[in-house]
C-alpha cells in the first residue's frame, strides 16, 4: 500500500507509555489529553492526523466530521463499538484495532468467572469478611464432566476452550465463520445454536456486538436451556438481554451469571449487580498490565507500519481512496 502521511497523533485515554515512545521514535508528534468531554474533543481533533483511544472515548460522527485532517483512528483493544466506523469510512479514515492484544487476559477472566460461579468464591469471601463461617451455604459443583457452550469461536473463544478442557469440561461451540474442522481441531464440537442451548451447563459468549448478536440470550433462548444454566459475558454488554437474564435468575432458569460488561457502563440499574447469584466486574477483561502493554505497543506499531507503507493489521474499515489494504482475516463473528 502507498504510505499515508501521519505527523501528529492525539491519545485521548491512558495507554501504555510505549505507545507514545514508538510513535515519537518514528517522527510522529504525540499529544496526550485524557478525559475530554465531547465538545472538547471536537475542538481539539481538527489539529491531528491520528487518534488513539481505548473504550471510554466515544468517537461519534460529530467528532469524525470535525476532524478535517484525521486519517487514522487506532483502538488500543479489540471492540470498536465506541467508534462510528461507517462515518469514518465515508470520510476515508482508517479504523484499526489490536485484534490479539487482550486475548489472553479476556480468556483468563472468563475462566475465573466460570470457576467463581461453580464454587461461589466471591460470595464466600464476602461472608468471611463479614465474620461468618458458613460452609453449607456455599456448596458448589465440580466443573469436571460439565458442558461448556462457547458462542463465538474466535481468538478468545479458542483460548477459553483450551483452558476449560484442562478442567475436564466438554466444550461445544457455535460460530458462523470458523470452519467446523478448525473448531474440532481445538477440541470443540461445532453445532448450531439450536443444538447448543439445551446441552449446556455453562454458556460463555465471545462475539462482537452487532444487530445479529444483540439479545442473543433472551427469554426465548433461556427457555431452551437446561434449568439452572450459568452464563458468562466478558464480551460486550447487550449480547445477553439484561432484563431477560434477571427474569431467568429470579425463576431459577438461570443458576448464575458472571458479568464483566453491561449495556450501560457503569450500570445505573443495579438489579443484576446486586443479585446474589451474579458475580460482576467493572469491565476488567483487558485490565492486566500485560494486555495494556500489548495493546499500546501494537496500535503504535500498526500506525508506524501504515505510515511506512506496509500492510495494515487490524483494519476494520476500508479507506475509499485508491490504496491497497490488507485486512486481517475474520476470526469468529
UniProtKB/TrEMBL annotation:
GO molecular function: NAD binding; phosphoglycerate dehydrogenase activity
UniProt keyword Phosphoprotein present: yes
Superkingdom, taxonomy of origin: Eukaryota
Gene3D superfamilies: NAD(P)-binding Rossmann-like Domain
Reaction(s) this enzyme catalyzes, per UniProt: (2R)-3-phosphoglycerate + NAD(+) = 3-phosphooxypyruvate + NADH + H(+)
Pathway membership: Amino-acid biosynthesis; L-serine biosynthesis; L-serine from 3-phospho-D-glycerate: step 1/3
Broad enzyme group: oxidoreductase
Entry keywords, A to Z: Acetylation, NAD, Oxidoreductase, Phosphoprotein
Record-linked Pfam families: 2-Hacid_dh, 2-Hacid_dh_C
D-isomer specific 2-hydroxyacid dehydrogenase NAD-binding domain boundaries: 112-285
Keyword Cytoplasm: no
Domain D-isomer specific 2-hydroxyacid dehydrogenase catalytic: 9-316
Enzyme Commission number, as recorded: 1.1.1.95
CDD domains named among the record's database cross-references: PGDH_4
Subunit structure: Homotetramer.
Family assignment from sequence similarity: Belongs to the D-isomer specific 2-hydroxyacid dehydrogenase family.
Protein name per Swiss-Prot or TrEMBL: phosphoglycerate dehydrogenase
Annotated organism of origin: Sphaeramia orbicularis
